[in-house]
Structure to design on (439 residues):
């Protein structure tokens, strides 16, 4: 998840935009420098031994059974020769077991380069530590470790349906996204571009950092990484919490529209943050953030004009919803599809530290916004170039798709003029800025 750095945004379309612009960074971890392959650079010892294994994890810090599975990825640097073995040991009841050596082929899961090892018959109500290290012909690398507890008192909500999927209590029924199409939504992980805008892609000012903290890929069950699709109906959502009512106001003076908000939804609908109360969810997305009121102020053009060429989207805020919640672009800090990867609450938002935001137009915001006479969605927000963002439906109440829109995820529609639309497919809100940016 992300931290938020207060900043002054650049001027857009000839009008100064002042906002606590936000970018996804680490909540608790200092990102490492990327290597040539885009992953964290790890330097092997002078002896030519392998670097440390990456992303060592267990499904949860609290496990309710006597069985636990650790997963990891190979080191970025295998040393002077290929990795021949992985060595593992586990500390149970305060005592370390001996190192056990296994060939990589016997540990490989067949899923995106992950390796895994399962331990059974662990003592309950106990703390355990797992260490993993790689070995090549030159010797063994340094170990990486992860700890967890087997806690008989830890519990999650009961699905009450006999469903064996432990995440099923967190599924939602959506009137916006249902049916077979929502079981195979296109994944946006490979659709970020920093060069040329294109329909269905996001034109970003910078690439993501693959080494940044984020969701635990090995724990995600609703994304089909082989076919680049994801299942909306099988993604978990944080349950609703107590209301946190925000404020929203706007005024037009001359050629400028000024919008102020506290960053919280005006209807008060928000999840039960912090998510650390839900071990199954934090095992997937360890976001410790708690939403709090902010002091947002955006000054944007009241009558925006198109730029000579599309403008790139920065990390963080790209629009402000008419319910006061800031809308970020479609990706997380790694550059992956944030809507698919990250855990949000049942109202569609989550905090970057304490700044609540969306990566798509929430169903609640769509429902709370009156439609036009012909069934067209109303304005659900304003992009930071001044152009309005409408909801999911076009004329006749027909749900919009990427093929209906241009490279910036908008179109010019009669008396409404140019505007953006929300869609259920990546990039969800904006693909780029259509408005004129000053330079």
């Amino acid at each position: 998840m992300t931290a938020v750095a207060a900043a002054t945004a650049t001027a857009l379309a000839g009008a100064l935009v002042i906002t606590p612009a936000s970018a996804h960074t680490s909540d608790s971890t200092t990102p490492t420098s990327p290597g040539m392959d885009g992953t964290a650079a790890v330097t092997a010892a002078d002896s030519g031994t392998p670097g440390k294994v990456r992303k060592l994890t267990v499904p949860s810090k609290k496990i309710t059974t006597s069985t636990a599975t650790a997963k990891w990825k190979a080191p970025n640097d295998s040393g002077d020769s290929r990795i021949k073995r992985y060595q593992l040991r586990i500390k149970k009841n305060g005592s370390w077991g001996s190192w056990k050596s296994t060939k990589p082929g016997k540990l490989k899961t067949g899923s995106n380069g992950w390796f895994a090892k399962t331990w059974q018959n662990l003592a309950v109500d106990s703390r355990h530590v797992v260490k993993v290290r790689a070995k090549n012909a030159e010797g063994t690398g340094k170990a990486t470790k992860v700890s967890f507890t087997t806690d008989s008192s830890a519990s999650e909500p009961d699905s009450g349906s006999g469903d064996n999927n432990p995440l099923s209590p967190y599924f939602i029924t959506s009137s916006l996204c249902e049916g077979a199409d929502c079981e195979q939504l296109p994944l946006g992980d490979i659709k970020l571009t920093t060069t040329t805008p294109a329909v269905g892609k996001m034109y970003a000012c910078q690439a993501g950092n693959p080494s940044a903290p984020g969701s635990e890929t090995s724990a995600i069950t609703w994304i089909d990484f082989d076919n680049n699709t994801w299942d909306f109906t099988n993604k978990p959502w944080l349950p609703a919490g107590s209301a946190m009512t925000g404020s929203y106001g706007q005024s037009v003076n001359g050629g400028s529209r000024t919008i102020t908000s506290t960053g919280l939804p005006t209807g008060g609908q928000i999840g039960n943050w912090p998510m650390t109360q839900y071990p199954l969810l934090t095992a997937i997305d360890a976001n410790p953030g708690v939403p709090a009121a902010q002091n947002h102020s955006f000054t944007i053009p009241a009558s925006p004009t198109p730029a000579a060429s599309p403008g790139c989207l920065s990390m963080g805020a790209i629009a402000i919803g008419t319910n006061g919640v800031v809308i970020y672009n479609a990706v997380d800090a790694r550059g992956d599809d944030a809507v698919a990867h990250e855990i949000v609450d049942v109202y569609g938002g989550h905090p970057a530290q304490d700044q609540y935001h969306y990566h798509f137009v929430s169903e609640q915001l769509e429902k709370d916004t009156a439609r036009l006479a012909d069934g067209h969605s109303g304005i659900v927000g304003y992009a930071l170039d001044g152009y309005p963002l409408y909801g999911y439906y076009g004329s006749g109440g027909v749900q919009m798709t990427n093929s209906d829109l241009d490279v910036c995820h908008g179109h010019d529609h009669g008396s409404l003029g140019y505007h953006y639309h929300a869609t259920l497919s990546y990039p969800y809100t904006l693909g780029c800025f259509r408005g004129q940016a000053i330079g």
Observations:
- The CA atoms of residues 11 and 102 lie 58 Å apart.
